[in-house]
Write a structure and sequence with these properties.
Blueprint: E1 3-7, E2 10-13, E3 18-25, E4 33-39, E5 46-51, E6 58-60, E7 68-73, E8 78-83, E9 92-99, E10 107-108, E11 112-117
Length: about 120
């Protein structure tokens, strides 16, 4: 059974930084593309960033491009989301997810809350 556990969320001020982590267990991490998604109150879940299994390809939502960086450490089965220059509109529950390339995201974490105050 594949499990994803996020950590690193918290309450910060506008302009601060946070680094989210997501540890994957029970699967072959090195074969998964990993993604970060977020859901703000009253809004649908939205894509934030992803990184392919090789680590070579990354993609970002326009709203976070230049401020967020996704990375992975296959030896630790962990994917990271470095979030800089945080804004109040980044406030959301952040989820990590795993997929086999070109398939839907099949495995999801429980989420970690990020709150950015102005």
């Amino acid at each position: 059974q594949v499990q994803l556990v996020e950590s690193g969320g918290g309450l910060v001020q506008s302009g601060d930084s946070l680094r989210l982590s997501c540890v994957v267990s029970g699967g072959n991490f090195g074969t998964y593309d990993m993604g970060w998604f977020r859901q703000a109150p009253g809004k649908e879940r939205e894509f934030v960033a992803n990184i392919w299994w090789s680590g070579v390809t990354t993609n970002y939502a326009d709203s976070v491009k230049g401020r967020f960086t996704i990375s992975r450490d296959n030896a630790k089965s962990t994917v990271y989301l470095q979030m800089d220059s945080l804004k109040p509109e980044d406030t959301a529950v952040y989820y990590c997810a795993a997929r086999v390339t070109y398939q839907s995201y099949k495995y999801w974490g429980q989420g970690t809350q990020v709150t950015v105050s102005s």
